[in-house]
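U., I forgot to send this yesterday:
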Amino acid sequence: MPWRFVRPDRVSVNRNLAANFLGTTWAALVQIAFIPLYIKYIGMEAYGLLATYASLQALLSLLDAGLTANLTREMARFKAGALQTNRARTLLRSVEFVFLGLGLAVFCAVSGGAPWLAGDWLKVEALPIPTVIQALCLMGGIIALRWFAGLYRGVITGLQHLVWLNAANAVFATVRGAGVVLVLQWISPTIEAFFLYQTGVTVVEVAVLFRKSWRLLPSPDRPSFSPVALRGIWRFSAGLTMISLLVMFMMQTDKLLLSKMLSLRDFGYYALAGSVAGSMNFLIGPVSGVAYPRLSELVARGDRPALSEAYHRFSQMVTLAIVPSALILALFPENLLMLWIQDAETVGAVAPLVTPLAIGFMLNGFMNTPYNLLLAHGRTKFIIKLYGVLVLLFLPAVYWGVSRYGAVAAAYAWVAINASCFIFAAPLVHKNLMPQGKWRWYRQDVALPAAAAFAGGFVVCLSTPRPVIHENWMNLLVVSSAFLIAFFAASFACPLGREMAARAWSLRSKMNIS
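Result:
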């Protein structure tokens, strides 16, 4: 039976998927596009502080304790009629109080620890220590505010107003990225000005999301704090918190160690390479946001044939989304960076790091749909054990490698850990949850499209000259042609891609006839 998306409760899953792709892609493009200007105005060492901010935010997000994800689930239950309006409002107000206390604690902790971080942890060379301390204090305030923004995004996501949410995210991403460039250019090219502007934008963002969230839960009754409401969701939150903790260690351990072991400038280079390679996560998120609830629904219904078909199609979506981009980053890092950054020294330092990091993120992306399948079946223990083992291997590998070979060792450790997961963990997932689909997943969903894309990209790589800085049109031609060849090769190597091509051809024929 051909698989298709359904439209429960008048909400089009296809529309939400399209909104997720458009909103996430736009936010990613805005974020990436302005990085060269940030470096131009504030310098590479100050950019290293932005990487420190990202690591702190990821680390402190663990204090969320899974409440946002749990709140999303409860709002989805409310939309389905399983939760009364007053109970939903009470739960939201209760979580708000928890976040208020945690936010104040985070701000005080980061501000209080700023002198130690600036003087002892970060290896500051050119920036004045008082400037770094002030920037760290502002980081603490922004992190606390963005917690609330994430909380309200979880509410809106659970209520499935994804078109509005992605439009709002796109607007604020543009204001945050483009606006700060104007501030740096016309007012003050300093790291303090950067974070002051970000603080103001985040305050407005929280206010808008707060208003939207509560308007979606209308009631004449005033909500109040309820410990009982929090106790009802703590078990699920605890499991998610443990998973989040381990994922954070996987994603941030290299950056945290390198921020201590390298100079702030060199750490900035590694962070920049990580931002480039990690941009592939923006391509996975929209698919994952639709795949998880769909797989959960099919598991609950016990529809094994539909579950299998959906699982393989989502896996192919992820492959088509990330493989062409990953191979372009791995095979043409200098062309892409020269086109983007226009600085020979930065390109020379970052390009060798981008290749292994891109391969690692590609392998990590392949595991996204098996991960969602585990969550759909409620197999959190397996996920916790898996990530526990990976963290125990990753931490010493990064420390030992960086101590002897520098930052590039952390990048190759990232490749090794994700390759191990792909080789050893994926078969265990399929053995327990989808025994008939293992080789179909490896061969049809991943290997054939990836091999076809690599072959196409490698042919372009062999036939193009060495990249030269400021030859923008040539670099653009190389990158775009390689991407298109890799994408079409991958598309025709998997069933979903051929189906998409057939539908596009059919639509074109109908338009010509009409």
